[in-house]
Amino acid sequence: MSRFQPAEAYHATETSVQLLPFRFERAGSGGYLVSNMVGDFLRLTSDEFNRLVELNVAPGDDLYERAYANHLITRAGQVAQHQILAMRLRSRLAFLREPSALHMFVVTLRCEHSCPYCQVSRQSTDRTRFDMSEEIAECALTIALESPASRIKIEFQGGEPLLNFPLIAKIVQGAKVQGPKKGKQVDFVIASNLALLDDAILSFCKTNEILLSTSLDGPEDLHNRNRPRPGGNSYELAVKGIKAAQQALGKDRVSALMTTTEPSLDRIEDIIDEYVALGLDGIFLRPLSPYGFAVKTKQLQKYDGNRWLDFYKRGLRYVLDINRKKHKVHQEDEWMNLMGNAA
Amino acid sequence: MVDAITVEFDEAVQSLDALNAAAYRLLDAASCQIEKSGGKFVCRLTLKNSAKQDSESIRSRFLDCVTDENVRERLAVKTEPVRNLILSLAFGSLASQPSGKSE
After folding, report:
1. Sheet with A22-27, side-by-side order of all strands
2. Mean of the pLDDT values across residues A155-167?
């Protein structure tokens, strides 16, 4: 006598197969991309898709198993799948329970750079009337601390926020005093081109655990072309600032992102090499934003979505190659990350 | 080149919501005006200059979009009870908690 039941005994019971909610899109030549309630997806041929919709599936036909494993179908009376989907949905949307965690403080619209792709309506540096006032800063901080989130992030933006560093210092000190009283943990980020970074600012950042986020568009010629400033030394100052911040605050306390202009498109490898050489372990490939000067100077029209996607794919391939080689040669755990909105 | 196409649907078997959704998906290639006339929905597709496809391809794409939207409607109706069940399992317990409180 066999120790096990025949295979048929382990097939699903006779209860009827039912559809679970899913989304679909046609994908390429006759195929479909189908995703369940929590975003898992699989590709189906037209025939498979039609069979799924009509529930013309049965245990053992492969499609049934794939659809079941991807939570596209269930069986009457089956509760485990409902619970799994509910649990995953709850986790996936957990961020909604901690709303409005990020607060941007545009402390000045002034900037000493004149980047043609700038998404902000920057003003020249001599116009102090474009600085945020202390009164507004106090109101903004009060509003930020009223957020229901237990941990909030205050990000200082511009213009170039370091042009109004005294106000940044006041806001940070105010948040440090008021935050704990309201049960809030507050993180800080300064988004800066680092051209005005000095030891006093670095020391303040270290004391207050402030992260720095900067822009690095690639090698010197490309960066300076994209990011003009008096003296034409944006790259030199950005690199100097990144190195100083890495040394003073730690390598993980400064990050950079790049903006893709038309001249960047053929140079993804050079751009990524620049990040690797500076010890930056992540790169955010960013297309032009359709705001501000990027529109006025017609930068946006210089490349289309397809060219951007090609650029992104080449970048992804290059990052994977770097990681593969690094892992092979050094067995290191430090991986280069690629972020970016490919859409 | 033909710059307008007319496609008709029987009002008795075709939902207007699905036609509207299909028209929206075709926005990059054609603008669609939908009118009711004699028991039919008449869809007038005006091709855009930027459209890279010919009129037959756009008609065919529109029909595919309508077909897909019809399937989406059917799926939504069929799966609504289980969808509500899953949503209630996921978030039902939050309803009794005071707002603004995390778990």
Report:
1. A22-27, A31-36, A41-44
2. 95
- In sequence order, what are the beta bridge partners of B5? B45
- Give the confidence band of B96 by pLDDT, cuts at 50, 70, 90: low
Whether residue A205 has pLDDT greater than 70: yes
User: A309: Cβ–Cβ under 8 A, 6 or more apart, which residues?
Assistant: A342
Of A124, A128, A120, A121, the C-alpha closest to A112 is A124
Cβ of A82 within 8 Å of Cβ of B91? The answer is no
Searching chain A, which residue's CA lies closest to the CA of residue B82? A20
Degrees to nearest 5, angle at CA B26 with B22 and B29:
160
Quick check: A264 contacting B, CB < 8 Å?
no
Phi, psi of A131, deg, nearest 5: -90, 150
* DSSP at A29: T
Q: Using the beta-carbon criterion (under 8 Å), do A21 and B83 form an inter-chain contact?
A: yes
- Structure ipTM: 0.88
Three-state secondary structure call for residue B35? strand
Residue A235's pLDDT is 97
At A335 the pLDDT is 55
In this prediction, residues B57-74 reach a mean pLDDT of: 95
Whether A20 sits inside 8 A of B85 (CB atoms) is: no
Among A59-73, A114-128, B21-35, the range scoring the smallest mean pLDDT is A114-128
Q: By the 8 A CB rule, do A289 and A260 touch?
A: no
Q: Domains (ranges, CATH) in chain B?
A: 4-91 (3.30.70)
Using alpha carbons, list the distances in angstroms from residue A46 to A31, A34, B72.
5, 11, 15
Domains with residue ranges and CATH for chain A? 10-94 (no CATH), 98-340 (3.20.20.70)
Residues 6+ apart with CB under 8 A from A315: A268, A271, A272, A283, A285, A338, A340
